[in-house]
Amino acid sequence: MSTEMPKINRNQSDRGKQGIFVFSRVAQRDLFACDAIEAADGEWRLCIRNPWYTGTYLSAVSFIRLTINGRRVPEEDTFLSLRGQRIPAAYAKNLHELWWGMGEAAEIFLTDQALADVLTQKNQINVDIDMRTTFSYGFPNDTLPYRLTGELEVKS
User: Fold this and answer.
1) Which of 29, 38, 135, 151 has the fewest CB atoms nearer than 10 Å to its CB?
2) What average pLDDT does the chain have?
3) How far apart are CA 59 and CA 98, in angstroms?
4) CATH number at residue 51
5) Domain that holds residue 129
6) pLDDT band at residue 8, thresholds of 50, 70 and 90?
7) What is the pTM of this model?
């Protein structure tokens, strides 16, 4: 039996990659708060949970992009909604007064009319989110990139 103590990994880049892997696996499991995309009044709605492991201000979302069945939804057609406050995705990074709680579901509204031709009964959804961290965890640029996928059905 070895009495040697395990070595500590002090390589910040390796630790950052490990953290991204761990947090992304947790987010992949819990990201979608519902199993469907709902169609209503010329737009589509789906729900996602805060992928960060604590609550944070909405401004921590520095980037969000959705791709549905290979079609990238334009940023100007993507809106986040928390507790009834609907915010354009491009503006979220500037909104410091709205708290997104741990595990809290946000609604994502998509107004891209081309989705009507892309959506099928079962849909491959790719969600790319960059979350700025409020403390330095060793992630590159203090940003945790989530690249998540799921399959959602359409409900009318």
Assistant:
1) 135
2) 84
3) 8
4) 2.60.40
5) 32-155
6) low
7) 0.81
Tokens in use for 30? Answer: 């819990």
The span from the CA of 131 to the CA of 128, in Å, is 10
User: What is the CB neighbour count within 10 angstroms for residue 80?
Assistant: 22
Length reported for the chain? 156
Residue 87: which of 52, 61, 126 has the closest Cα?
61
Tell me if 108 is assigned to some domain.
Answer: yes
Contacts of 104 (CB under 8 A, 6+ apart): 49, 50, 55, 82
Q: Is residue 21 situated within a structural domain? A: no
pLDDT, tens digit (0-9, with 9 covering 90-100), for 35-85: 899 998 889 999 998 877 777 888 888 899 999 999 999 999 999 999 999
C-beta neighbour count of 19 within 10 angstroms: 15
Q: How many whole angstroms separate alpha carbon 12 and alpha carbon 142? A: 12
What whole-number distance in Å separates Cα of residue 98 and Cα of residue 86? 11
